[in-house]
Design a protein that fits this description.
Strand order of the largest sheet: 1-5-4-2-3
Number of domains: 2
Number of strands: 10
Largest sheet: 5 strands, parallel
Strand content: 5-15%
Helix content: 25-40%
Order of helices and strands: EHEHEHEHEHEHEHEHEHEH
Shape: globular
CATH class of the largest domain: Alpha Beta
Distance between the termini: 45 Å
CATH architecture of the largest domain: 3-Layer(aba) Sandwich
Length: 283
């Protein structure tokens, strides 16, 4: 069986819709309205899909200093995956209605736990709805056993602090250019960016149709951003470790592997005003 590890099309997904070895997850969310995802799922979702909440399932407890979407305990998340029917041989598909903005978090977290048979539905819910029906049925798959082996895909705050201004780390900020510059900040108490960070807005990974750009185009854009820097030194971040995963997926599609994610991101970094911060368009 062919494994999907980056993207899958609507056509390809329809061919496996009733495959018991596959699990589909609805990751829809709205940062300004946390109740949106569950409500949207209840109104209609891809047949067989199970809802996972960014706040409740794909994040751990907040302390006030560890960011808006800290990573959950990996063992606890592995247990959750087993409870919703994901085993180590399961093909996982994630989707949302925001160009992969939230579904990419699940994609990255599964890879973090050592599971590479996971892909985003390219074009998301909109692409599906254009030709396929939605369902209101809530599936109840049999539980499975998911054994995780963490991969070194995440870095913590201490790592970022220790490697500022070093060639061994290139920070890439996935937020919109205005938030990177320190303008129009509505989610975090302090505006700006981590000094030295380059800006690559995650939505630039998508074409006008909401699907990911072709691999060659993505590769050219990231190489232009990074210059001579080694892709394996890239550490992605954003506001809270969500859209950072979108940029890592884009780099994987482009054949530029080895990058990692700082999940605490700006919301964790700016929780301590003594850490260096910068505004404006320069890194």
């Amino acid at each position: 069986m062919t494994a999907f590890d980056t993207l899958i099309s609507v056509r390809e997904l329809t061919q496996h819709l009733n495959d018991p070895r596959w699990r589909i997850f609805d990751c829809r969310h709205d940062l300004a309205n946390p109740a949106f995802g569950r409500a949207a799922y209840a109104e209609g979702h891809i047949p067989g899909a199970i809802f996972l909440s960014l706040d409740d399932d794909l994040s751990g407890p907040k302390t006030g200093t560890n960011g808006r979407h800290p990573l959950p305990d990996p063992a606890r998340f592995a247990t959750l995956l087993g409870e919703v029917g994901v085993g180590n041989d399961t093909q996982v598909i994630a989707y949302d209605d925001a160009g992969g903005m939230f579904a990419a978090r699940l994609w990255w977290m599964l890879r973090w736990l050592g599971h590479h048979k996971v892909a985003l539905l390219d074009g998301g819910c909109q692409a599906w709805s254009a030709s396929q029906p939605l369902s209101r049925e809530v599936p109840a798959p049999p539980p499975a056993v998911f054994r995780h082996v963490l991969e070194p895909l995440a870095v913590d705050l201490a790592y970022v602090r220790q490697h500022l201004d070093r060639a061994a780390m290139v920070l890439v900020d996935a937020r919109s250019p205005d938030r990177y510059r320190g303008e129009n900040e509505t989610l975090d108490p302090i505006a700006g960016h981590i000094p030295g960070a380059l800006n690559r807005f995650f939505r630039d990974n998508l074409g006008p149709d909401g699907r990911f750009k072709r691999a060659g185009e993505l590769r050219g854009e990231f190489e232009s951003l990074l210059g001579e820097r080694d892709p394996a030194t890239v550490v992605h971040h954003c506001g809270s470790g969500v859209t950072a995963c979108h940029n890592q997926l884009a780099m994987e599609l482009a054949g530029l592997g080895g990058s990692r994610v700082y999940a605490g991101s700006w919301s964790e970094w700016c929780a301590d005003a003594s850490r260096p911060m910068k505004t404006g368009s320069e890194p």
